[in-house]
Design a protein that fits this description.
Blueprint (H helix, E strand, L loop, with lengths): L31 E4 L10 H17 L9 H11 L4 E4 L6 H14 L8 E4 L3 H14 L4 E4 L9 H6 L3 E4 L1 H9 L14 E5 L9 H11 L8 E6 L10 H14 L13 H6 L3 E9 L4 H23 L15 H17 L3 H23 L6 H6 L10 H16 L5 H16 L5 E5 L2 H12 L10 E3 L13 H12 L5 E5 L13 E5 L5 H10 L5 E8 L4 H23 L3 H31 L7 E5 L5 E4 L3 E4 L3 E4 L4 H4 E10 L3 E9 L7 E8 L2 E6 L4 E5 L4 E2 L20 H7 L21 H9 L2
Parallel strand pairs: 2-7, 3-5, 3-6, 4-5, 6-7, 8-13, 9-11, 9-12, 10-11, 12-13
Antiparallel strand pairs: 1-8, 14-15, 14-22, 16-17, 18-19, 19-20, 20-21, 22-23
Helix pairs in contact: 1-4, 2-3, 3-4, 6-7, 8-19, 8-20, 10-12, 10-14, 11-12, 18-19
């Protein structure tokens, strides 16, 4: 490979792999020519959805009517599954994995060996469900349906599965069905003949894929005749650091999916596969960024840290953990989270605890500012919205003074990284006005701000840039609705929008036929993410560019990712070299050990539930300032999922914030309940509409509990409550209901309370609670 040296005032970087050089502000470094051996990442499933749309267009050209004709390498990938074996298929993005799965399903359904064949096709994200459904519907002659979380309230999902031969769905839908008692289920494993896991590398830890397979393996004695097929572009390496651990990571994935044979990869038809893989040029650009403002931000953070130490000493609280020196890293964010917990648990003075939590919020704001200051205009004005200055106490004066000083400095910050991004986009669209570009960023705030900036740029606004983020809101910004996601995707697919700015959580599916330019803007994912990025550019002569600052460690991460990708390939080959007997024995041993661990956890959970205390011993307090909210014996539950306050005095203790909120087609809220402490004011509960009644539904993350002996606990989630909530809201008598909920929906709310909106959907309600 020839290397073109470009003179640069910026530092040069070398490694044992391909050289990656820096360049001046208007130039690229060096293009690294490589074949696209793309994969998927635990962080994102964007490629799988890209692949599906490309396959659809490809097969529209190559097939007669609606019949699939697999290529040689695709037949090689499908061979084990077509023979009825459980199989893990590993193949690059763009190789036509969805077509392979479609042929496997087709032959499985048409087989006469077993009647009542029924297939579940699991996808990790909602947008991907409809997309895969369309592909399968086109090429299968049997009944095909799809179900996602927000549709479950419109018809019983279990019955819909039973009425279809093939169902594309998100895993939580089926998991909810399995968690019901057997007599309440419409469908069970005994009704299923094949399960397909798309992006099956997710089948680890507590992912719904893994939970479903845990339940399946726990019922092994029932001998369910279900064939399992998993598909991924790369199984990844997890956190493994040596060759043996990487191999163990792959064996665990096989065990989790109940697959006792080696992964299916292309070997015999490798040349044919390479002929159908586009080449993509990779570049990494490092840009020198400013340091003066950053130094001032770091100094401000150090001052706040000193206030934290002083406050902690004055209250004789438990010693704080050491403060990380690198304040822009995730380790510092973890320390901030610990600091907030420290205030809630170990500060006896409630006002001191509130101050400590206030300091933690400001440190969190500046932590984000360190990342955003080089990426978007007016970053500090944006991050200031993450903190509520209004409800702060005496500490507010000092904090605001420091913040005002930084605000004055921030107006003069230069943004060379953003300038480089604009130049690259301008050059690309001058050469090819019909090009498409995806820019990936870490934060949704970055995505929305870049859209705003591009729309105000006369040279770029004609590209109609749009941002795409996930459906969960957070402190940075509000969530997108699924309808708005679909609208943006449609605009990009049709070429109305030429530039898409996306976060990794926008992985519900990007069914884009071709992309000329993929840019990672100061953002690098894990090892599989690197492989996946190379597969996103599908047009001829497409490019993948990483733009980062000289001070970041993204360059090192990219090299680490490259090495981990190689380690994953070696592990696959090592497993393929094992004898069938040895492989099956090792996987069986892993499954046996995992089953023993699950049994122990279940026994401990059962023991814990039997020893739960009486709620009458506990008070519910504001998680930040410790103000009294209610006593725990006033709590009730909705369907054993959400925690409702049934206390006639609750409304007098809280501030009400009226607003209409919606999540999905079925869930409505009429506002929030805020802590009444004027120095606090955090949102604590959602006014949720359920069966024509407004219920104050607690966000467990926003509370702490105090026992009558003074012990304090922070549950974090409902399952960690030290007491049982045995009464449902439906068990309350009429008088109790009337006293507790005297502000039910007013006249004129008929639209909000139509019949569909009264149905309860757990997933969407959880997401709506995230908004507070």
């Amino acid at each position: 490979m020839k290397r073109q040296r470009i003179e640069s005032s910026e530092s040069e970087w070398k490694s044992d792999g391909p050289d990656v050089l820096n360049a001046k502000s208007s130039r690229l470094v060096e293009d690294i020519q490589t074949k696209s051996d793309a994969g998927t990442s635990p962080d994102t499933n964007l490629n799988s959805s890209l692949e599906s749309d490309i396959e659809m267009q490809r097969f529209e050209k190559e097939e007669d009517d609606n019949n699939l004709i697999l290529r040689g390498y695709q037949k090689e990938l499908a061979e084990k599954a077509l023979n009825g074996q459980n199989a893990l298929i590993v193949a690059p993005t763009g190789s036509g994995k969805t077509a392979v799965l479609t042929e496997i399903i087709k032959q499985h359904i048409e087989s006469t060996e077993q009647k009542n064949r029924r297939v579940l096709f699991f996808v990790p994200k909602t947008t991907l469900a409809q997309q895969q459904f369309k592909f399968l519907k086109r090429y299968l002659s049997c009944s095909v349906s799809y179900i996602i979380g927000e549709l479950t309230a419109l018809a019983p999902p279990g019955l819909k599965i039973k009425n279809s031969q093939v169902t594309v769905l998100t895993p939580q839908v089926f998991l909810n069905e399995l968690k019901s008692s057997k007599e309440k289920r419409y469908v069970d494993f005994s009704d299923i003949s094949m399960i397909i896991f798309d992006e099956c590398h997710n089948a680890t830890k507590n992912h719904p894929y893994k939970e479903i397979m845990n339940m399946f393996l726990d019922e092994q004695d029932q001998k369910h005749n279900v064939q399992i097929v998993g598909v991924t572009a790369s199984p990844g390496v997890g956190k493994a650091k040596n060759k043996e651990r990487v191999k163990e990571n792959l064996l665990r994935l096989l065990a989790n999916l109940n697959i006792t044979t080696a992964p299916c990869t292309v070997e015999k038809n490798l040349k044919e596969l390479e002929e159908h893989q586009n080449k993509i040029r990779e570049s990494l650009i490092q840009v020198k960024t400013e340091t003066e403002f950053e130094s001032k931000v770091l100094l401000t953070m150090s001052d706040i840290e000193q206030n934290v130490k002083k406050l902690n000493t004055e209250n004789e609280a438990k010693k704080l953990s050491n403060i990380p020196s690198e304040k822009a890293k995730q380790v510092y964010m973890n320390w901030i989270d610990q600091l907030k917990q420290h205030g809630k648990l170990y500060m006896s003075d409630q006002d001191a605890a509130r101050k400590l939590i206030t300091y933690s919020k400001h440190l969190r704001m500046y932590h984000w500012l360190l990342d955003l200051k080089n990426l978007i205009p007016q970053a500090m004005l944006k991050t200031n919205k993450m903190v509520d200055f209004v409800h702060e106490g005496s500490e507010n004066i000092e904090l605001e003074e420091k913040n005002e000083e930084l605000l004055k400095m921030s107006s003069n910050i230069e943004l060379p990284m953003l300038g480089r991004l604009v130049n690259i986009l301008g050059d690309e669209f001058k050469k090819n006005p019909e090009a498409r570009c995806i820019i990936f960023v870490k934060m949704r705030l970055t995505a929305s701000c870049l859209e705003e900036y591009f729309m105000n740029n006369n040279e770029l606004k004609h590209l109609n840039p749009k941002y795409l983020t996930g459906t969960h809101a957070n402190v940075q910004s509000e969530a997108m609705t699924k309808d708005s996601q679909e609208s943006v995707l449609k605009s990009f697919r049709e070429g109305v929008t030429k530039v898409l700015i996306a976060t990794s959580v926008a992985e519900e599916g990007l069914d884009i036929p071709a992309c000329n330019l993929v840019i990672m803007f100061n953002y690098v994912t894990g090892e599989v993410g690197r492989i996946q990025r190379k597969g996103r550019g599908r047009a001829v002569d497409s490019r993948a560019i990483v733009i980062t600052s000289q001070e970041s460690d993204h360059l090192r991460k990219e090299e680490d990712n490259k090495i981990c990708s190689q380690a994953s390939d070696i592990a696959i080959q090592d497993v393929k070299n094992m004898t069938e007997e040895k492989l099956k024995m090792q996987i069986t041993d892993i499954q046996k050990k995992q089953k023993e661990d699950r049994d122990i956890k279940r026994k401990m959970a059962n023991k814990s539930s039997k020893t739960k205390e009486s709620p009458s011993k506990w008070k519910v307090l504001c998680g930040d300032c410790g103000s009294f909210i209610t006593s725990a014996d006033k709590l009730r539950h909705i369907d054993n999922t959400h925690t409702v306050v049934m206390d006639e005095k609750f409304h007098g203790r809280m501030k009400k914030q009226a607003m209409d909120m919606k999540k999905g087609p079925t869930i409505r809220g009429k506002g929030n309940f805020l802590c009444y402490n004027p120095k606090c004011g955090i949102k604590i509960a959602l006014n949720l509409v359920h069966k024509k009644t407004l219920f104050p539904t607690l966000s467990i993350k926003k509370i702490k509990l105090q026992r009558d002996d003074g012990k304090v606990e922070i549950p974090g989630k409902r399952s960690n409550l030290p007491f049982a909530i045995n009464k449902s809201v439906h068990e309350a008598d009429g008088e109790e209901m009337q006293k507790s909920f005297d502000d039910n929906p007013e006249d004129g709310d008929e639209e909000m309370l139509d019949e569909d909106s009264l149905l309860y959907d757990e997933d969407d309600t959880c997401e709506l609670l995230e908004l507070i």
